[in-house]
UniProtKB/TrEMBL annotation:
Protein name: Carbon-monoxide dehydrogenase small subunit
GO terms of molecular function: 2 iron, 2 sulfur cluster binding; metal ion binding; oxidoreductase activity
Domain 2Fe-2S ferredoxin-type: residue ranges: 6-82
SUPFAM superfamilies assigned to the protein according to its UniProt record, in alphabetical order: 2Fe-2S ferredoxin-like, CO dehydrogenase ISP C-domain like
InterPro entries, A to Z: 2Fe-2S-bd, 2Fe-2S-bd_dom_sf, 2Fe-2S_ferredoxin-like_sf, 2Fe-2S_ferredoxin-type, Beta-grasp_dom_sf, Diverse_Oxidoreductases
PANTHER family: OXIDOREDUCTASE WITH IRON-SULFUR SUBUNIT
CDD domains assigned: fer2 (cd00207)
One Pfam family recorded for the sequence: Fer2
Keywords, in A-Z order: 2Fe-2S, Iron, Iron-sulfur, Metal-binding, Oxidoreductase
Metal-binding found in the keyword field: yes
Domain of life: Bacteria
Length: 165
């Protein structure tokens, strides 16, 4: 550890963790290099493409820009946490069912943004889905399938809530 290193403590995918970081380390650096979580990926390095999206305290953040020092005391969720119970999250299953990915590079960002969307709006219109996901780029152009997958997941999640009620 250098003279400028610091320790941050936060919750990562439901578990308390600590990391030794340098002031310039980003969330993406820490997730990949300290915790071997590779779902969030750097693509543009400017927070414009959504590939590095993580949820911090329930809100999306660009892991390539967000400094790890700001994680102290936070709750961080990555795409690896979606299937925490050993079963695919309805969004993951819908993405598979609809063929909403090709190369998969952008998928983790789309999944986490969609999770945040459905938490705020469990029954979004296609226009609302498109608008909400507009900050995520898919170079394979699977946009129609992504919209379809989010709609399918929303329907399945709403049906499951009604069955429980």
């Amino acid at each position: 550890m250098s003279n400028t290193a610091m320790k941050v403590s936060f919750t990562l995918n439901g578990k308390p963790v600590q990391a030794d970081i340098e002031p310039h380390h980003t969330v993406l650096d820490v997730l990949r290099n300290t915790f071997a979580l590779y779902g969030a990926r750097e693509s543009c390095g400017q927070g414009l493409c959504g590939c590095c999206t993580v949820l911090i305290d329930g809100r999306s953040a660009s892991g390539c820009l967000y400094l790890a020092a700001a994680l102290d005391g936070s709750n961080v969720e990555t795409v690896e946490h979606l299937d925490a119970d050993g079963e695919l999250h309805p969004l993951q299953q819908a993405f598979i069912d609809c063929g909403a990915f090709q190369c998969g590079f952008c998928t983790s960002g789309f999944l986490l943004m969609s999770k945040q969307l459905l938490a705020a709006n469990p029954d979004p219109s296609d226009a609302e889905i498109r608008n909400y996901l507009s900050g995520n780029l898919c170079r394979c152009a699977a946009y129609p399938e992504i919209i379809q997958a989010v709609r399918l997941a929303a329907n399945r999640m709403n049906e499951a809530k009604q069955e429980v009620s």
